[in-house]
Amino acid sequence: MTLRVRWVWVAGAAALVVLTGCGQVSRREDAAAAVAAGFEDAAGRSDAAAVCGTLAPGTREELEDQEKADCEQALAQVDLPAGGPVRRVDVFGQQARVVLEGDTLLLSVFPDGWKVTAAGCEPRDQRPYQCEIKGA
Question: How far apart are CA 92 and CA 109, in angstroms?
Fold first, then answer.
């Protein structure tokens, strides 16, 4: 193999790795956005069972402990903002932040896909988000 052929092969392989990696990030962003949109849709329809289904196990447990009620009843006691359409998705390894028009959701990957770990989140200067629903 000549040096020129090797260079073309190496450059092509590198481009494939970059493009494949970008595609994976895009798919992960799309999947996180879909879960956030499902959460928002269910919340807008007051479908507590569907909202609870999108929550991470620890988040659901924390909500139930905090409100001293099962998840569906506990949601009625939480004042979640209307999120609206997805504006931005940021994926960081196994976590994602989905910024909606009126809310921010934090998600994590579980064996069965993305789950909401925090909702009703507002940014604070140089400090973690303040969230209405969050896991322990």
Answer: 11
Q: Which CATH architecture has domain 3-134?
A: Roll (3.10)
SS3 64: helix
Rounded distance between C-alpha atoms, residue 75 and residue 63, angstroms? 8
Report how far residue 46's alpha carbon sits from residue 51's, in angstroms, rounded to the nearest whole number. Answer: 8
pLDDT tens digits along 73-111: 999 999 899 888 999 999 999 999 999 999 999 999 999
**3-state SS assignment for residue 113:** strand
Q: Which residues contact 38 (CB under 8 A, 6 or more apart)?
A: 50, 54
